Amino acid sequence: MRAIFTIAFREWRTLFQSPLAWTLLAVLFAISAYLFNSMIHYYNQLQMQIRMSGYGGDQIQELPFTEVAISPMLGNTAIILLLIMPMITMRLIADEKRRDTWPALACSPLSPMQIILGKYLGLLLFLLVTVLLLSLLPLSIMPYASPDMGQVISGFLGLFLLAASFGAVGLAASSSTDNPIVASVSTFGILLGLWIISWMGGEISGSAGAIFSYLSLIDHYQPFLSGVISSTDLFYFILLSVAGLLFARQRLMAERING
Amino acid sequence: MSEKMIEILGLSRRFGQTQALDNINLEVNRGEVMGFLGPNGAGKTTAMRILSGLLSPSSGHVRVAGMDILNEPIKVRQSIGFLPETPPIYGEMTVREYLTYLASLRGVGKGALKQSVNDAMDRCGLTAVSHRLLRNLSKGYRQRAGIAQAIVHKPDIVILDEPTVGLDPIQIREIRKLIRELGGEHSVLLSTHILPEVQMTCDRVSVINNGRIVAQDTLAGLEARQKAAKGLRFVWDNPPDDATLQSIPGVAELQTDGDAKLIIPNKNQDPRAELVKRSVENNWGLLELRPVEHSLEEIFVQLTTMEPQGNNTEVSQ
User: Fold this and answer.
1) For residue B32, what are the domain limits?
2) Model ipTM?
3) What's B281's domain CATH number?
4) Which of A107, A111, A252, A258 to mutate to test the interface with B (most CBs of B within 10 A)?
């Protein structure tokens, strides 16, 4: 257990020490903030139009701020994450192999699962910090608007779970190669595939369509943004993460056999 | 001096069609420095990767510190320190951070951590650079850091894969001295293709070629072979024909090397006096006579270029 935390802590530090992670975070925050800002403008416009139209009579209707501004921002942030997560996870294991530091870990008295869990835990800590920092955006509007806190929290929980499952897929890809770029490209391919698979789910009817819909990342993320936390969606993200970790462990074990 | 720290029995390893290791046997006793000698591509690295748990064997048994590597892989790795050919260095860490990180991964308790790291740095001469980033250190220091990470958890067995490659002569000398010092406390398996290195550092030697152990001997044994393989080099102004030379008692073998004749004497009969006497009598004009010793290099080349035969494994202890 101590070894897992040792690896996790080091991984977390390495991420925050690398210029790549900072650059990616800067891009994520800049674009999310810009999107959030334009959502607020959009909200104000809508609000204005409703008042001018006099709809609702004397009682002036308040538009749901979370629904109009925060949830769409989280939806877009997820797409940016889809683009940058492969670049954050690519180095987890592949880079150790490329830089020949892997034997130092692999010769240590650790099981493959301990190495994988350590790496993953370090990544989760990094993602937790990222999501917490992103939550500053809606918090900054608190004095001026009254977002539905339950829905905001549900949205950010969804974002964290989504990022965590992206991370597990990335870790699986990174453990399968000694080339970080290959890991990054294949992670992106898998994630994008899982993102758009629901488009096919819509086309195909019957049970095949249902399976495609079930596999889709976006179909399980969307409910969180609407404030619905269902066990099906929770289970989906946990399942995807566990599958990623088990695959990575399998790769490391096979490596000893295949050389 | 007979507790076996490494026991390899009938170990084989295949990579697809390639037989990297073919039924090798090897034993390393406690506190001994064993040289693992062979040309590039002979299988040294494969054997070391199997010992350190990076690869699994195709067949055969490997016991380390009395434990089977397949049954107790994690415990085995606790008692092994491995320096691969390229030292596994995290450039963005300082020497102290690096050793502390790896020591704690290898189960050194929190209380003993600082002491273990200090000991390892002290032994490898790293104390003066403990606060510097590894990527800024010279190759020699990085190699030392690599050795330090292999001994930081005080393993019984230290495995070093070509630790002196690419270093300058002064660094090489220092690293060899360090390896020499490691023996006694740790059992060391040292792979190299440099013979003087073996002469300077090892107690025993295994020579591997094409995935097979072709000789295993003490250093004294190898040196004895070196003396046994003595030849005599003659240069004459008007050399006699070969048949005449071969008829002289005591001449076992005759080779021509440019102007010189190389004579391998019979074990029990020294032909030198007779050859000199005849030279004078027949006016051959003796210009040079000197004994030629087979260098270790030649023994090595001889061992590693032998045609693979059914049973070319000589083991003498």
Assistant:
1) 4-225+301-305
2) 0.86
3) 3.30.70
4) A107
